[in-house]
Specification:
One of its GO terms (molecular function) is protein-tyrosine sulfotransferase activity. It holds the Pfam family TPR_19. The protein has helices spanning about 5-15, 15-30, 35-45, 50-65, 70-80, 85-100, 105-115, 120-130, 135-150, 155-165, 170-180, 190-200, 210-220, 225-240, 245-260, 260-265, 290-295, 310-320, 325-330, 335-350, 370-375, 385-395, 410-430, 440-445, 445-455, 505-510, and strands at about 275-280, 300-305, 355-360, 380-385, 435-440. The chain is mainly alpha-helical. The chain has a domain at about 245-510: Rossmann fold (3-Layer(aba) Sandwich). The longest helix is centred in the C-terminal third of the chain and has 21 residues, at about 410-430. The chain is globular.
Length: about 525
């Protein structure tokens, strides 16, 4: 690295955007032809969700250093965020040819195929890398993840078995394997997992997925006390390694409600009858994937998955913000038509051109008012579930990259209360603009609820939506295994097995006025 770029690199690592921008401007005025500087400019642009500038910076770096893999991958990533999927895939294919004997680069290429939604290509490239290095545990894990996204559960399990055999300390592989099936007293890995905790680094993050794997297998075998003990141990350990305060998120939700008030809502246009994007949103583990898969089985609907395009469009249109409060304030009076156009432009490149495209990003509930204002053609579907089932389902899922509030019950309770109040606010100021769907009603009467969903989109009902589990479409969510099964009701009321342990959660929800009685919803 050029010595003068080291302080700028440090600023980028600290997310000192203003300092890094000033430093880069001064450096590039003196030395405009240093590829590393353009790569840093690309990183800076990425932090600001300015993916056009990120793409251009990567292009400059490639011109100065032809074949530079970091520059090539940066340009590809920018194109994925811009919805330029076809061009990104073409560039990945070119890199694939050049990296045919390089398993490390093939892994990177496969990861970007996954980002681009090209899961079959990712699976193929992982297999090519495995042909070169068949005993790389991390490669085996990633290949298993790709196989699972395609519904190849047996293949995923075999790959994870190999990864664990080579590296028994791989907690991520143990956890992913635990999620693949329902375990029995005769067939489980409890003894091996408990053995791991006796000899492994129990206070390190490596122990977290082991606890979650044990919780899954103990629950499957009916030992709910042991399951909860490991959930709590794993969650507390994960939370102890994070710098997170739920207050920042709950304050942001309160600020959103105060900013996008009745006066703002008065300017929201009525929902158009024209086809458009379909937002399936709510908390995770509430049935969003089930609704996504059902609707995507209709021949006029396709799913883009969890894409974050609306949040990125919002950040790009708002410009550099000093924090959440500043970003929220900027978005109230921004050019909402431009926001909607940017979202449609980027998301359109991800699909096959069907009239209705599902964006199943749960956290879009935060932007519901902006979605309604920016996208009159949008259909918005909110999934809700019994509060205790909802909170417990979140608590027992190891999300890894997202939802930092999901590891402690106290944080989940505060987040749920804030979410519930925000949804009440959206109902009050935007009556009839979105459809509430109850998970319990959906699994009890899938045909009736799917007819209601189809009507909300303006579509004729199709019996194909009930056969969603036969679809070979990829799924990368925590429900990737469940979506290969027909609708089932066994998750309803599951929290009651843990009523004693969840009593503090129940008390906090009730104190906030949330009904946790039978059939209650958010």
């Amino acid at each position: 690295m050029h010595p003068a770029l080291k302080p700028i690199d440090d600023m980028l690592r600290r997310r000192d955007i203003a300092g890094a921008a000033a430093g880069l401007e001064a450096f590039m005025a003196r030395s405009p032809d240093v590829a590393e500087a353009h790569l840093m400019a690309g990183r800076l642009a990425q932090m600001q969700a300015d993916f056009t500038r990120m793409r251009d910076a990567a292009g400059q770096a490639e011109r100065l250093a032809p074949g530079h893999p970091v520059a090539s991958l940066m340009g590809i990533e920018a194109r994925i965020h811009l919805g330029e999927i076809a061009e990104a895939a073409e560039r990945l294919a070119q890199m694939e040819v050049a990296a045919a004997t390089n398993p490390v680069m093939l892994q990177h290429i496969a990861e970007f195929y996954t980002q681009a939604g090209r899961h079959a290509d990712a699976d193929r490239v992982y297999k090519a890398a495995l042909a070169i290095t068949p005993d790389d545990p991390r490669l085996l894990f990633n290949a298993a993840t790709a196989a699972l996204s395609l519904g190849q559960i047996d293949a995923a399990e075999a790959l994870l078995d190999r990864a664990i055999a080579i590296n028994p300390a791989d907690g991520d592989a143990w956890y992913n394997r635990a999620t693949l099936r329902t375990w029995t007293h005769e067939n489980n890995h409890i003894a091996a997992l408990e053995g791991w905790l006796k000899t492994g680094p129990v206070k390190s993050l490596r122990a977290v997925p082991i606890h979650y794997a044990l919780a899954k297998q103990y629950e499957d075998t009916g030992d709910h006390a042991a399951a909860f003990r490991h959930l709590q141990a794993g969650g507390d350990l994960r939370a102890a390694h994070m710098r997170y305060s739920v207050q920042a998120d709950t304050d942001a939700m309160a600020l959103i409600a105060g900013t996008f008030d009745a006066d703002f809502a008065a300017g929201v246009p009525a929902m158009s009858d024209e086809p458009g994007p379909v937002f399936v949103l709510g908390l995770p583990r509430t049935g969003t994937t089930l609704v996504e898969r059902m609707l995507a089985a209709h021949d006029e609907v396709e799913s883009l998955g969890e894409i974050n395009d609306f949040a990125y469009a919002l950040m790009a249109e708002a410009g550099p913000a000093k924090g959440k409060a500043d970003l929220i304030a900027r978005t109230r009076d921004m050019d909402h038509a431009s926001l909607g156009a940017r979202y449609l432009r980027t998301s359109a490149g991800r699909g096959a051109g069907k009239a209705y495209r599902i964006d199943k990003t749960p956290s879009n509930f935060l932007y519901l008012g902006l979605i309604a204002k920016a996208l009159p053609t949008a259909r918005i579907i909110h999934l809700r579930r019994h509060p205790m089932d909802s909170c417990f389902a979140i608590y027992k899922t190891l999300f890894r990259m997202g939802y930092p509030w999901s590891y402690r019950l106290a944080d989940i309770a505060e987040y749920y209360v804030a979410y519930s109040r925000l949804m009440d606010h959206w109902r009050a100021v935007l009556p009839g603009r979105f459809l509430d769907v109850d998970y319990e009603a959906l699994v009890a009467d899938p045909e009736g609820e799917s007819r209601r969903l189809s009507a909300h989109l303006g579509l004729d009902w199709s019996p194909a939506v009930l056969d969603f589990h036969r679809s070979d479409a990829p799924s990368t969510t925590a429900s990737a295994v469940q979506v290969r099964r027909p609708v089932y009701k066994s998750s309803v009321g599951k929290w009651q097995h843990y009523a004693r342990e969840l009593a503090p959660l129940a008390e906090r929800l009730q104190a906030a006025g949330i009904d946790i009685g039978v059939g209650a919803v958010a």
